[in-house]
Structures are given as C-alpha cells and as structure tokens.
Amino acid sequence: MPQGTVRRAAFAIPSKQRRIVFRDICGFAAQSFRADRVRATMTALGMVIGTASLILVVTISLTGKQFLLTQINNVGSNLIWAEYSGQSNTAAIQDYLTDEDMDAVQRQVPGIQAASPVLNLQDRITGPGGKERYILVLGVSPEYVDVRRLRVLCGIFFNQRDSQSFNKVALVTEAFAQRQYGGNELALGREIKIEALPFTIIGTFREGVDTFGRSEIQDDTILIPYSVARRLSGKREVNQIYFSMADSDSVPLATQEILKVIQSRHRPKSKYEMGNLTDVLTVAQKTANTLTLVLGLFATITLMVGGVGIMNIMFATVSSRLHEIGIRKAVGATRQDITLQFLTEAVLISVAGGAVGTLIGLGLPFSVRFFTDYQLPIPILSAFIAILVCCSVGIGFGTLPAKRAAALDPVECLRHEGT
Predict the structure, then answer these.
(1) Which of 22, 31, 282, 351 registers the highest number of CB atoms within 10 A of its CB?
(2) Mean pLDDT (whole number) for 163-169
(3) Which of the four pLDDT bands, split at 50, 70 and 90, describes residue 66?
(4) More confident residue, 370 or 21
C-alpha cells in the first residue's frame, strides 16, 4: 500500500485506537517540519529567544538579589547598635551610654554573641609634606573586628591581652596607610602619636563593605583598645555600643529587649536610638523579588510575541494544505483528528523552541561558572516554568488555526486545490 494511503487511513481508525492515531499525528508533524525546515526554524526562533530571555532575566535578577543581600550581610545582618540621642528636656544633664550598660545587656539579653563599645576621640597628625589634618580615633574592644565584620588586610587585630595590659597598639584604615605611609605593609611597625603618646601600628583594615563614610569608620580612622582610649579621655561615657546576635532572626526582638535594659538604667526622659539592618534586608528582598517579577513579565511578553508568530505561521500552513485537509476528511478523519493534527504541530514547534532556549538560558550561567570563579545562581525552577509556558503558548495560539482547519468543508478544500 502506498505511504500516502497509510497516512490517510490512520484518520479512519476507530476511537479505541486513538493512541496509534496520536503517534501517527506526531509523525506527520515531524514530516511537515522536515518538508519546510526554514519555516519551522523561523517559527521556533521566537520561542527560543523568549525562553532564553526568561531564564536569563531570572538569573540576572537572582544575581542582583544575591549581591545585594551579600553586601548587607557583610555589614552585619545580625548587627544591633545603640546610641544616646538626647532628652525630652533639653535643659537636663546629658545621660550617655556607658560600658556598664553593655555588660548589663550581655547579662540580661540572651543570644548576644559579641559586643563592643565605641569611644570617639579626635586628634591631629602631620601628614606628608608637613600638612596637618584631623584623624578619628575609636576606642573599641577586641570583639569589634567580629561585630563589625572588618577585614584585617595586613598584620593582626589587638586582643584581650593588649586591652587588659593597656598596650599602646593601633590599627589604621587602608586609605590612611596608603596616604600616610605609601601602603599597608609599609605602615606595619610605624609609630603614630595620639594625644602625644606613641602607638605602634600592628595592622591595617577596612570595612567588609564600603559604606562611603556613612558609618563611624572614616578614611582617616585609627582603632585603639577601649581601655587605653578611656584612660586618654578620662570619661566613662561611650558614643555607641554594638551587639552581634548569634541568630539574625532574633534581631528584632533582641533590639527591643536591649532598649528596655538600657532605659531601665537611665533617666526616664533620656532617649536612646536603636538600629539594625532587618528593615533594610526586608526591603532589599522585596525589591529584588519585585524586580524579578517585572522582568519576568517582560520576558513572558516576548514568549507571547513568539506565540503570535506561531499562530500566523499555522494560519499560513492551513491555507497551503487545504487539499491535504480535504483528502483526510474524505477518508474519514474527524474534526477532532484535524484539530489534534495542527495543534500538535503548534505545540511541537513551541516546545522545541523552548527546549533550545532553555539550553541557552541555562548554558550561559554554567559557562560563567566554568570559566570564572563567580558563581551565578542557576534558576532550575524558571527552566521548568519556561517549558510550561511554551506548552501553554503552543496550545493557546495553535488552537484557533487548528479549529479553523477542522471547520473547513472537504469539498471546498478539494475544489480549492483544483483551482
């Protein structure tokens, strides 16, 4: 029996054998693609671009979110700080925080991993060229390096022994070392006078994330042990107290508890400002998620445009295959058979384009991981979503041409071929 007769007879098989019919329909669709490879390729190209765009947009959004959250975590997502902000009665005596407040908080509030007071001092030094400039000297505890997540670039941070022995040691910022001595290593071992006393530089540091001068650490900042700074100043007050929690989830509640402990130790009208990065972290997560959603919608629109292209091509395909449709209906093919035939072609084009686009969309982040040390997030879930959207697009935009083909009169179809 000729091959064309076999194809036509397949549509006359009873409904009990629809599995065989569907398998044949997939075969016919593949044959139609091979017969016009250029049209099929150009039709699928829109889905390739749309799917790859969707995955890459999600990858870019996740990368931005990961970077933003990493920056916040480097500052300290489990960080809490407290400082005196004034009094409701301006004529009242100033009621600053003290290191005893820090000790009381550590005893009464559970979950505190480390804490450090910060005592601000100012002095002037002579820089290169004999020019004097002001420097900021911070008296801090050894835990300050962990609480503020500082990066020691060269040398070491002072320890408890230095603090208890009142050793005159200091760490300077990277910018200060470069400006004053020409580099980090060149600053080690140098002596710098603070309040006319010689301090030995034992290390250089910088913040984990550049805060552009919006923290207590400036470019010209020197860290010394708090015990030494307290002797130099002759004061028991501190400017800030930093706390580091073991669990970032406990930060909001711990912030309230710390404020209660501090207020209980001071005058009722004294005001203290508490701060943490929980709100910033929440806003950053919401912003990143919103950005991902918006960009994902734009990529989905690209898929919709590809779906319109599929619909237009399928309409053209129906018009060019009128004689074939008439023959198939003449040998017993039902409307459902014709609908399924063209709908299958639309879905196969859409899914094929989506599969290629998924490989491209996932391949680029993988290649970045392979050739560089940067670990881009791989949005596997978005790949599944993209394939699902491609199937939906194929069904949605292929249904109308398929129904139009099924509704055609076989006699008119055969007559059209003859004309």
Answers:
(1) 351
(2) 94
(3) confident
(4) 370
Domain boundaries, the chain: 17-70+283-418, 79-276
Instruction: Summarize the chain as % helix, strand, coil (round to 5).
Output: 60, 20, 20
- Beta strand pairing status for 270-276 and 79-87? antiparallel
Beta bridge partners of 238: 97
- 348, 355, 359: which is closest to 313 by C-alpha? 348
Cα separation of 78 and 218, whole Å? 22
Q: Supply the angle between the helices 278-320 and 251-264 in degrees, to the nearest 10.
A: 160
Distance CA 383, CA 349 (A): 17
Strand partners, 243: 80, 115
Residue with token string 């990858």 = 59
| Nearest to 75, CA basis, from 201, 239, 244 | 244
CA 221, 225, 230, 231 torsion: positive or negative? negative
Burial readout 351-388 (b: 16 or more C-beta within 10 A, e: otherwise): bbbbbbbbbbbbeebeeeeeeeeeebebbeebbebbbe
Torsion of CA 323, 325, 327, 332, to 10 degrees: -170
With 50 as the cut, is the pLDDT of residue 16 above it?
Answer: no
Over residues 339-363, mean pLDDT = 83
Predicted TM-score (pTM) of this structure: 0.65
Q: Which DSSP string corresponds to 305-374? A: HHHHHHHHHHHHHHHHTHHHHHHHHHTT--HHHHHHHHHHHHHHHHHHHHHHHHHHHHHHHHHHHHHSS-
Note the pLDDT tens digit of each residue in 283-328: 777 887 887 788 777 777 777 777 787 787 777 777 777 777 777 7
The highest-confidence range among 69-73, 222-226, 380-384, by mean pLDDT, is 222-226
CB 62 within 8 A of CB 368: no
Q: Are 203 and 157 in contact (CB under 8 A)?
A: yes
- 220 within 8 A of 133, measured Cβ to Cβ: yes
| Beta carbons of 386 and 330 less than 8 angstroms apart | no
Nearest Cα residue to 121 out of 229, 237, 228, 215: 229
pLDDT digits (tens, 9 = 90+) for 190-228: 999 998 899 999 999 998 776 545 578 888 899 999 999
Q: Where are the beta strands (DSSP E) in 100-182?
A: 112-126, 132-140, 151-155, 169-173
Q: Which residues contact 150 (CB under 8 A, 6 or more apart)?
A: 144, 157, 205, 206, 207, 208
